[in-house]
Design goal:
By secondary structure, this protein is mainly alpha-helical. The protein has one domain. 72% of the residues lie in helices and 0% in strands. The protein is built from four helices and no strands. The relative contact order is 0.08.
Length: 68
């Protein structure tokens, strides 16, 4: 218990950083599930969509094939 009290500041900063990373990863996962690409836009408005190289679109197609 005395170690936690002696290092309270470090423990607090570490907890805040871990929470920030968890929230960021959760946001990225939710964006991918909703079809938002790494650029932050939907695939239909992306220049890569027209060329057929959009990774988010390919992942969505793979998910559809797995469920059918």
């Amino acid at each position: 218990m005395s170690w936690i009290i002696a290092n309270y500041g470090s423990v607090l900063v570490t907890a805040i950083l871990i929470a920030a990373v968890v929230l960021a990863v959760r946001s990225i996962i939710n964006d991918r599930k909703n079809g938002v690409g790494s650029c932050g836009q939907r695939c239909s408005s992306c220049g890569l969509h027209a060329s057929g190289t959009c990774e988010a679109e390919k992942l969505a197609e793979l998910r559809k094939k797995k469920t059918t």
